[in-house]
Amino acid sequence: MVSLKIFPSDIVADMNMLKEAVKKSLEGRGTIYKFDEEPVAFGLVALVAHILVPEEAEGVMDEVERRLKSIEGVSEVEVLVSRRIA
């Protein structure tokens, strides 16, 4: 499982739309375990996505990051932690 902080390029009124865009962009590469929201500053809220990705597949993390960065309205993606789960 990898946890990524997704920073919107502007204040997002509807975080549910961003969550759906993240889910759709990861189809075939990862599965959302859960989302958290983290206040950043001045009304800006970052979305923390906890994503289940296959460990044995090569290049999955690069592909996940690339897909997330390509979502309209996303300014930055930061990897918080990557860990194995049983």
Q: Please describe the biggest sheet, giving its number of strands, its sense, and whether it closes into a barrel.
A: 4 strands, antiparallel
Q: How are the strands ordered across the major sheet?
A: 2-3-1-4
Distance between the termini: 10 Å
Which residues sit in consecutive blocks of at least 5 with pLDDT less than 50? none
Q: Percentage of helical residues?
A: 10-25%
What sequence of helices (H) and strands (E) makes up the elements?
EHEEHE
- Total beta-strand segments: 4
- What is the residue-averaged pLDDT? 90
The coarse silhouette is globular
Question: What would your notes on this structure say?
Answer:
The protein has 86 residues and is α+β, with helices and mostly antiparallel strands. It has 2 helices and 4 strands, in the order βαββαβ. Strands 2-3-1-4 form a 4-stranded antiparallel β-sheet, covered by helices on one side. Strand 2 and strand 3 form a beta hairpin. The radius of gyration is 12 Å and the shape is globular. The N and C termini lie close together (10 Å).
Describe the structure concisely.
Helix content is 24%, strand content 42%. It has 86 residues and is of the alpha+beta class.
Furnish the topology, listing elements before pairings.
Layout: E1 2-8, H1 15-25, E2 31-41, E3 44-52, H2 60-69, E4 74-82
Antiparallel strand pairs: 1-3, 1-4, 2-3
